[in-house]
Specification:
237 residues; alpha/beta; Arc Repressor Mutant, subunit A; two-stranded antiparallel ribbon
Length: 237
């Protein structure tokens, strides 16, 4: 049995773009771990961070790798799919090299262990890098489609910014209406943070009070942080 840490990631509108949100990723990893006799000791996540970002720009992934490098409490890291680790081939290879250099292992719930390079088996590296290249291409094509859609919507007089922010819902072209429960949750976050509460403490209170995320799922510290950051920018505008 391997003791692992789980890593989850969605980009800015990841749950809308590909329907593979944090909760779904976690469920897939948990099912895989149970089926293969592994144990996930802790969870780390980056919500609202692109898979093209370098390791230094991803606090959740940095913490996950810190947890598996010597002296380790876990021997490896598991993601739901390899594209959750990275959607840039160069970033993927740099992250894998960092983990492997520390003597740890990388697993993907859909394919199992990600094997390290072997000079006697060059196809191993080739196949992994082809998969990484496909994820990178998919990301680029998706961004192209989204940009074209925003431009077309803007040209027709609609709201071009995509999904309405937390606390609001769309009502017609370019119009937003407040969502009372989400507005209450935002106020609670701001109040607790101002009083010195930690992000995990805020998550616990939100969950206990019955407030839901935009997708109706579980609260994560980075999710709360992103909402607080966005609220701060709006308030200071």
């Amino acid at each position: 049995m391997a003791k692992l840490v789980g890593y989850l990631r969605v980009s800015g509108n990841g749950q809308v773009k590909d329907g593979y949100g944090l909760e779904t990723q976690k469920e897939d990893i948990e099912h895989w771990a149970k089926a293969n006799g592994h144990k996930v000791l802790s969870w780390f996540e980056d919500a609202g961070i692109s898979g093209t970002k370098e390791l230094a720009e991803r606090p959740g992934l940095t913490e996950a790798i810190d947890a598996i490098l010597p002296p380790p409490s876990a021997s490896g890291i598991v993601v739901a799919r390899l594209d959750r680790l990275a959607r840039s081939l160069t970033v993927q290879e740099a992250i894998l090299a960092t983990v492997w250099a520390g003597g740890a292992t990388v697993y993907s719930a859909d394919t199992g262990e990600v094997p390290q390079d072997d000079p006697d088996d060059p196809m191993r590296t080739f196949v992994r890098q082809v998969i990484g290249g496909i994820a990178q291409l998919d990301r680029a094509l998706l961004n192209k489609r989204l940009k074209a859609g925003r431009e077309a919507k803007k040209a027709s007089g609609g709201r071009a910014s995509g999904r309405p922010p937390y606390g609001w819902r769309s009502v017609g072209k370019g119009e937003l209406m407040p969502v009372p429960e989400e507005q209450e949750a935002l106020k609670l976050m701001v109040s607790m943070r101002a009083k010195g509460s930690t992000l995990p403490e805020i998550c616990a209170v939100l969950t206990q009070a019955g407030y839901l995320t935009k997708s109706g799922g579980e609260w994560f510290p980075t999710t709360v942080k992103n909402l607080l950051d966005a609220h701060g920018k709006t308030a200071s505008a």
